[in-house]
Amino acid sequence: MNKLRQFKRPHLLIVGCGDVGMRLLPLVRQRFRVFALTSSSERCAELRRAGAVPIVANLDQPATLKRLAGLAQYVVHMAPPQADGQLDLRTRRLAQLLPSGGRVVYVSTSGVYGDCAGELVTETRPVAPRNARAQRRVDAERVLRDWAVRSGAQLAILRVPGIYAAERLPIKRLEQGTPALLPSDDVYTNHIHADDLARIVALALFRARPGRVYHAVDGCHLKMGDYFDTVADAFGMPRPPRLARADLQAQVSPMLLSFMSESRRLDDRRLRQELGARLHHPDIGAAVAAMALAQ
Q1: In contact, 238 and 180? CB cutoff 8 Å
Q2: How many CB atoms lie within 10 A of CB 256?
Q3: What are phi and psi of 71, to 5 degrees?
């Protein structure tokens, strides 16, 4: 009987079942028969233990994806684009296999907005990506919107900022003494705890309005240097040195500099009012302090 109920449950496919996907599985495995796409056969046992049916395939190898066609009416797409180019070829391949009339939650990035000079950003703000990494995300969003319109499916897009958790803090950066910007040059940054992001994804599967964009964010408006100081203080580490932007450019990688060149504050009202999200970690300072005490 248990096996019969299992097969009667709706099917959910998680594409990109990494850290956040593993946190999502306990929230959905009672409601769905969950399939998890992995490119590594070595992860199959881990995924089975977590309650998912592993599907070994690779978004970079189209011939391996045939089994995905029509597999699930619900899809959570968390796989990042490939590392180069302006088009997200992985999402383009996946979109060809998605079911008509289904429901998809796509986990995108707040980087699609580019630099907003510290302004408060709502989901209706036009995208303005400043690098190829963000442009690929914009492409993925457009591809999925087009697919949803053609197929009559329901799509929700979650734009996600920096994800943190106990094992996802900038400890190594602090140990290396990587500098941060002077307060006068610093940028606003946004965060979400990995557990809260998993909960938001689960809520979006049932509560998101069709075609809607949501900011998956905790609502704390910290500048980047203040975030590093918060982590340093909690773990008893030296705060990073502060430099002017002109001096910092010679000491950090181009990718890190790109993150330190975009300033925005993400509005979280739609997340709270429409999805009814109640975060377990609404205050990043309190969350980081608790992580330090738990060590």
Answers
A1: no
A2: 13
A3: -70, -40
Q: Look up tokens 């289904």; give the residue.
A: 102
Tokens of 51: 């309650």
Strand partners, 242: 180
Question: Hey, what's the torsion of the CAs at 95, 207, 36, 199, to 10 degrees?
Answer: 130
Q: What is the pLDDT of residues 186-238, one digit of tens each?
A: 999 999 999 999 999 999 999 999 999 999 999 999 999 999 999 999 999 99
User: Residue 178 is encoded by which pair of tokens?
Assistant: 């990587």
Average pLDDT (117-130) is 98
CB of 254 closer than 8 Å to CB of 109:
no
- How far is 88 from 60, CA to CA, in rounded Å? 11
Rounded distance between C-alpha atoms, residue 190 and residue 18, angstroms: 21
Helical ranges in 71-220 per DSSP H: 89-95, 132-151, 171-176, 194-207
CA 241 – CA 176 distance, rounded (Å): 11
Cα–Cα distance between 255 and 263 in angstroms, integer?
A: 15
Q: How much is the pTM?
A: 0.95
CA–CA distance, 112 with 142 (Å, rounded to integer): 12
Question: How much is the pLDDT for 183?
Answer: 96
**Is pLDDT above 90 for 19?**
yes
Which sign, positive or negative, has the C-alpha torsion 167, 161, 191, 264? positive
Q: Give me the residue spans of the domains in the chain.
A: 8-165+190-218
Q: What's the whole-number mean pLDDT along residues 28-38?
A: 97
Cα separation, 256 vs 243, whole angstroms: 14
Spatial neighbors of 152 by CB under 8 A, at least 6 apart, are: 100, 101
How is residue 158 written in tokens?
């979650």
Query: Is pLDDT above 80 for 4?
Result: no
Q: What per-residue confidence (pLDDT) applies to 254? A: 84
- What is the domain class of 8-165+190-218 according to CATH? alpha beta
